[in-house]
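Page 37, continued from 36.
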């Protein structure tokens, strides 16, 4: 689907991308201990003896973390492995007290699945399927802080032992746009399911970006891995820079080294971190302190039953009731928006006009107020009241805008505002005809020009009539009666 190419001095190059997304599991406790997981706590205040790797401490799997990972796998139509196992990934790092990470390499909890993405927002029906190779569950490491002391690094173990889902895509992505669409879609699914809050700024979702280049359709090139990129925009920038860097190296006669790199958001560039380790360097072996996970049918059935309506299904439902494909994509991108719109539809308003109003008037107001839809001053039921007044002719478009602004300021209902402020649309034919006659009488020059062939003046007469009636005249009726009067 992608026509993204990098044009070098020796011809075109194709980019091959895979993403390893680390998503923090939504749970009140860590993967193998009862320590809390709240973000923003004071350093080292959410650390159990297990997280600190005290001697004799044995891990016990948190059933809720396993459940959330299974539900996530089901949401992407992945194979759920009824038998899986934890492994030890051995490496030394100052914020890893055990000296190893408990992860899953050989027998992950979730096998192959997929996500359908739309890389071009202007073409929401142009879908590409991206394979997901696996989802495995593992524990996070702590955090090193280098800015607290001039000569020492401090360690915060609050994150140590927090449950992560590592969601590994296949190398099916071919452009920064596709990678961005995949990340946005994955984040949306996780937030619908409730298995991760998707907050990339707080580090609860971050991506390792694997990039290589090759001649179009040729053999795969050597890849680099850029670690811990924490926004969709930064992922796209990292891919763009890294792909162009690799092309420049190859065209200069050099070779790409398999290595781990870091992304600098201030410059939009990547730099070498360390040479890339292979799996055998980590000396993986089954964790002797943990029995294999065995899932029964009752647990799987509960997970399936707990899944909500997912973005693709919801989008199709919206389109089936008259919402455009573009609006449906916008309304289903964030779970809070979809919930708000569902509540609006429950009130009985027509879906098509309602979707136009939400994506236009409501989103514009929320942007001005700098709040999310869950903090909207106007509730779905109040919005339905306003839309009903537009639909039955009580309010014109311009009057509806006025009423909506008052609703935002006061929290009052639309009907109350209309009555108290006299903002009801006028559809009294005789009253409008009288105003039109007065407008024509006061503008004889324009009337003569119009009848002489300057038909663009029709808009002038409409504007003068609406102005004379304080914007309250029914616009359709004004147009109809003006045409008759100008004959």
């Amino acid at each position: 689907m992608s026509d993204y190419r990098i044009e070098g001095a020796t011809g075109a190059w194709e980019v091959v991308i895979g993403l390893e997304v680390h998503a923090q599991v939504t749970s009140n406790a860590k993967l193998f201990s009862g320590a809390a997981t709240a973000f923003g706590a004071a350093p080292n205040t959410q650390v159990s003896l297990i997280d600190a790797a005290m001697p004799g401490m044995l891990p016990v799997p948190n059933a809720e973390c396993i459940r959330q990972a299974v539900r996530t796998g089901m949401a992407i139509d992945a194979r759920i492995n009824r038998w899986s196992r934890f492994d030890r990934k051995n490496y030394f790092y100052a914020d890893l007290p055990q000296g190893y990470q408990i992860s899953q390499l050989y027998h992950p909890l979730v096998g192959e699945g997929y996500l359908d993405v739309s890389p071009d927002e202007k073409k929401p029906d142009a879908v590409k399927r991206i394979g997901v190779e696996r989802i495995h569950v593992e524990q996070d490491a702590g955090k090193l802080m280098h800015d607290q002391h001039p000569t020492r690094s401090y360690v915060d173990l609050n994150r140590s032992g927090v449950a992560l889902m590592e969601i590994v895509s296949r190398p099916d992505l071919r452009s920064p746009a596709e990678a961005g669409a995949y990340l946005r879609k994955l984040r949306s699914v996780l937030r619908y399911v409730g298995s991760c809050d998707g907050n990339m700024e707080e580090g609860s979702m971050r991506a390792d970006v694997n990039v290589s280049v090759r001649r179009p359709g040729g053999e795969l090139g050597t890849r680099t891995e850029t670690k811990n990129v924490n926004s969709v925009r930064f992922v796209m920038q990292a891919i763009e820079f890294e792909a162009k860097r690799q092309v420049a190296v190859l065209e200069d006669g050099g070779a790409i080294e398999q290595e781990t790199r870091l992304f600098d958001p201030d410059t939009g560039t990547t730099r070498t971190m360390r040479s890339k380790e292979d799996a055998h360097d980590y000396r993986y072996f089954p964790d002797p302190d943990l029995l294999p996970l065995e899932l029964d049918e009752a647990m799987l059935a509960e997970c399936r039953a707990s899944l909500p309506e997912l973005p693709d299904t919801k989008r199709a439902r919206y389109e089936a009731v008259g919402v455009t494909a573009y609006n449906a994509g916008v309304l289903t991108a964030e779970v809070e928006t979809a919930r708000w719109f569902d509540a609006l539809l429950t009130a009985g308003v027509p879906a098509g006009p309602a979707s136009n109003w939400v994506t236009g008037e409501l989103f514009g107001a929320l942007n001005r107020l700098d709040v999310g839809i869950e903090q909207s001053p106007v509730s779905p039921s109040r919005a339905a009241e306003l839309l009903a007044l537009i639909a039955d002719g009580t309010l014109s478009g311009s009057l509806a805008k006025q009423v909506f602004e008052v609703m935002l300021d006061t929290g009052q209902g639309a009907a109350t505002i209309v009555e108290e402020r006299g903002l009801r649309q006028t559809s009294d034919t005789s009253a409008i005809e009288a105003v039109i006659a007065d407008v024509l009488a006061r503008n004889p020059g324009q009337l003569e020009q119009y009848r002489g062939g300057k038909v663009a003046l029709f808009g002038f007469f409409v504007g003068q009539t609406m102005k004379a009636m304080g914007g309250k005249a029914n616009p359709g009726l004004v147009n109809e009666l003006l045409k008759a009067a100008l004959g």
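The chain is about 40% helix and 20% strand. Flag for discussion at group meeting. The mean pLDDT is 93.
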